[in-house]
Design brief:
about 180 residues, alpha/beta, 5 helices, 8 strands, about 30% helix, globular
């Protein structure tokens, strides 16, 4: 069975909002290898509405020779949204009802894993619903103090098991968790 695997850039105090404003000083070859490895595990992407909108505004307009642009544009994308009516970015499908059942069906289809980048609200929901199989956090050694955090008050307890960890030369920790 396919897995749903999420990867997020996160600050030491749990902020995941707007990583483009704070994570680049820590981006190096080690992090690129980690991000690439995660992307290569999947043949489909799962996105929340906000991340979809950001990606769809950027990636279709990039050089098709850029490997990242080519991958993101060609990969089938599933966007979870109850308010979206159309998805113009190529290979995009909206999931707007029976989300848990639809994602369970996707996981049962043949293929590689389903990867996620960003989409913190959706990641939290998937964790509470027991649908997220792996959580990859690239923990940056910075305290931001403000911004959207991955886990909100009242999410409840969700036991996780650390299955892999690596420390990068920049001080970033690459942590992989699965449900306990």
């Amino acid at each position: 069975m396919r897995k749903i695997i999420a990867g997020l850039f996160i600050s030491l105090d749990g902020v995941v909002e707007a990583p483009q404003k704070w994570h680049f000083p820590y981006f190096n070859e080690e992090m690129m290898q980690s991000v690439t490895w995660l992307m290569e595990r999947g043949d489909a992407m799962l996105l929340g509405r906000g991340t979809y909108d950001e990606f769809a505004a950027h990636w279709p307009h990039q050089d098709p020779a850029d490997p990242m642009a080519r991958t993101l544009n060609e990969t089938p994308k599933y966007v979870v949204s109850t308010t979206m009516e159309t998805a113009a970015w190529q290979n995009s499908t909206i999931i707007n009802s029976d989300v848990a059942a639809r994602l369970t069906e996707l996981k049962q289809q043949p293929g590689k894993d389903i990867t996620m980048s960003g989409s913190p609200t959706l990641v939290s929901w998937l964790l509470t619903e027991g649908l997220l199989d792996e959580l990859h956090l690239l923990v940056h050694p910075i305290i931001l103090g403000t911004g959207q955090r991955l886990f909100t008050e009242g999410i409840g307890q969700i036991p996780l098991t650390l299955t892999a960890s690596e420390s990068f030369s920049t001080g970033v920790l690459d942590l992989t968790y699965e449900r306990a």
